[in-house]
Design goal:
The protein has 326 residues and is mainly beta. It contains 4 helices and 24 strands.
Length: 326
């Protein structure tokens, strides 16, 4: 009897970990004959996640629109079995549209954030997926831009911005299109061709960083540049602790963080929040250019330390060593 009681107590101690284990289901997506897309309605709960697999070719364009009933539900897009996502829903939103880098299976992973999963919440959702455009020819070739609006250099560098300002990248060539990302002064982007919209020249650009970006930018902030420096990135992945506080007037404590670094102060920082979940901070050339969707952020600097304020309450202190390495 004593042994049985001991086993019961052991099971009770282990139960939270067992119940909190991530379970992933794979579902293959196929398009009906004569169509280039599909609409999926589904539901998941707690720590469940669903991987939707579909095949595509390099050079094609994939568009994903995710509409969940629970605001803590997101999707990530992965290439095959590579664990590094090319779209992270919790930081980049519930829509993706981009040119695919490789041929093979793509994995759309739908999940609930840990704070919602821990409460065993559910979500109903609609997932719309479409694939269009011709596959890239092998070997893939970049256009040889030479002159005029359809020409120009292979690479641009962002310039002419006010101190601390960023350049909006939009979904189309004009200010009426949605902002899909931001570039910092000094960022180098591939030139995909330009066009006029009224008296303004707009250029389609491609930025290959930790958060890949394709869209349109105002040409007056772009100048010809050499290809980006291909040198080894300094200490690209790191973890540690940074000072943090979650409300106004609260003393600073310590929060775990992880960082993915590029070069020259380009870094993506994820800070683990005391109540669960993560706060995302995006830096270019040491300047804060973005955070989680809907968040209001500001940055002030003292010596080699950046003080970050989120929504007027959360505070974080980010040393330059986190952004630049060292």
């Amino acid at each position: 009897m004593r042994i049985i009681k001991g086993l019961i107590l052991l099971w009770i101690a282990l139960a939270p970990g067992i119940l909190g284990a991530q379970t992933t289901v794979e579902k293959r997506v196929t398009f009906a004959p004569g169509t280039s897309g599909a609409t999926i309605s589904d539901r998941l709960r707690g720590y469940e996640s669903i991987d939707y697999l579909l095949g595509a070719s390099a050079g094609q364009t994939m568009t994903i629109e995710f509409t969940p009933s629970n605001p803590s539900a997101y999707f990530n897009l992965l290439v095959g079995n590579d664990p590094a996502a090319i779209h992270i829903g919790s930081t980049s939103g519930n829509r993706f549209s981009g040119t695919l880098p490789a041929s093979g299976d793509y994995r759309i992973r739908v999940f609930l954030m840990r704070n919602a999963a821990r409460r065993d919440e559910t979500t109903d959702y609609t997932l719309r997926v479409s694939i269009g455009g011709a596959a890239a020819q092998a070997p893939a070739r970049q256009p040889d831009y030479a002159d005029g609006l359809s020409g120009g250099p292979d690479w641009w560098q962002v310039t002419g911005l006010s101190a601390g300002d960023t350049l909006n990248v939009r979904s189309g060539p004009g200010t009426g299109y949605a902002v899909v990302g931001k570039l910092a002064s000094g960022d180098r982007v591939r030139n995909m061709g330009c066009r006029m919209n009224g008296q303004t020249r707009w250029c389609q650009v491609e930025f290959a960083g930790d958060q890949p970006l394709t869209g349109w930018a105002a040409g007056r902030y772009l100048r010809e540049a050499a290809a980006p420096d291909a040198r080894q990135r300094p200490s690209p992945e790191a973890r540690g602790l940074v000072p943090c506080a979650q409300s106004a007037g609260q003393p600073m404590g310590s929060c775990p963080f992880r960082v993915s670094r590029g070069t020259d102060g380009t870094a993506s920082v994820w800070i683990t929040l005391p109540g669960g979940g993560e706060r995302y901070l995006d830096f270019r050339s040491g300047q804060l250019v973005g955070s989680d969707p809907g968040r209001s952020v500001s940055q002030s600097r003292t010596s080699d330390l950046s003080a970050i304020l989120v929504d007027g309450a959360e505070r974080y202190e980010i040393p330059d060593a986190v952004l630049y390495g060292g």
